[in-house]
Amino acid sequence: MHTSSLVLMAAGLGSRFGGVKQLAEIGPNGESLLDYIIQDAHSVGIEHVVVIIRSEIADVMKSHLSRIHGNEVKIDFAFQDLSGPQRKKPWGTAHAVLSAAEYISNPFILANADDYYGVSSIANAAKQLSKTGPLSGALISFELANTLSETGSVTRGICTTDSGRLLHIEETEGLVLIDEIGEIRDQNGRVFKPTTPVSMNLWCFHSSIIDLLKSQWKDFITEHIESETVECLLPSCIAEIMRVEGYQVHVAPSSETWTGITNPEDLGKVRENIRIFRH
Fold first, then answer.
1. Ordered per-residue pLDDT tens for the chain, 279 residues
2. Which of 37, 33, 125, 97 has the alpha carbon at shortest distance from 73?
3. Coil vs helix vs strand at 110
4. Is the Cβ–Cβ distance between 36 and 139 less than 8 Å?
5. CA distance 70 to 232
6. Contact of 241 with 212, CB cutoff 8 Å
7. How many CA atoms lie within 13 A of 53 on its CB side?
8. Is 87 helix (H, G, I), strand (E, B) or coil?
9. Where do runs of H (alpha helix) occur along 129-230?
10. Domains in the chain, please, with CATH?
């Protein structure tokens, strides 16, 4: 019986990247970012991993993880594209978690497979797991300035907090550093402080979050069953669960600098960052 798990969301299409970015080779032995997250989690005692993927990349993903990790951790695979109504584009991050429900029975860390959070961030997340409960979870937040990309604008979940509690989270698009004036702005011209806390989808949940998300998904899919593009996003669902159920999210800040892959041009920088971060 596993006391806790790492759940990795790796079912994205990678349309901007133009390939299976979840397996983009970063390390000297062909490691991808998700391999480093698995290693970091294992180093703090997490021995069960659930990887949420699309069925079309199942064989290459299983082969890759077996080569890199062997029997070091137990890995289960959940298929997001086989869960829920069929369409080409995945139904979003909240739906991704639900597609892994059968493998989730303990507190778990949830993370993106194409982001690297740093060893201390994963250790911090593991520490928060013991504090999760039926109506409480945690979010590891990052400083906005530490999560920007050199190759273009990014979307981040801007967090409003009070005394370590999450009050609100808002998906904010087009965030970019304007070098000439040293300001971070979004696509609407709003200015943000470099230290603004943001979500990078590094969450800590009790298994009871599954039932709460099922209720959100039921309402969402009733309204959007015909859509080919709209997504059921985790931050929006958590915000609604906070409003309706009184759910509380503790925000634990990380001082790590994020690195991750969106565009092919990111690869060189990510390889360089990983060499520095994991030296």
1. 568 999 999 997 665 555 677 899 999 999 999 999 999 999 999 999 999 999 999 999 999 999 999 999 999 999 999 999 999 899 999 999 999 999 999 999 999 999 999 999 999 999 999 999 999 999 999 999 999 988 888 999 999 999 999 999 998 999 999 877 779 999 999 999 999 999 999 999 999 999 999 999 999 999 999 999 999 999 999 999 999 999 999 999 999 999 998 778 888 999 999 999 887
2. 37
3. strand
4. no
5. 34
6. yes
7. 20
8. coil
9. 209-224
10. 5-277 (3.90.550.10)
Backbone φ, ψ for residue 85 (5° rounding): -60, 145
Amino acid at residue number 213: L
Token pair in block for residue 152 = 């273009």
Say whether pTM exceeds 0.85. Answer: yes
Q: Where are the alpha helices (DSSP H) in the chain?
A: 33-43, 58-69, 93-99, 119-128, 209-224, 234-245, 266-277
Instruction: List the one residue out of 98, 134, 56 whose CA is nearest residue 232.
Output: 98
Residue with tokens 């937040």: 141
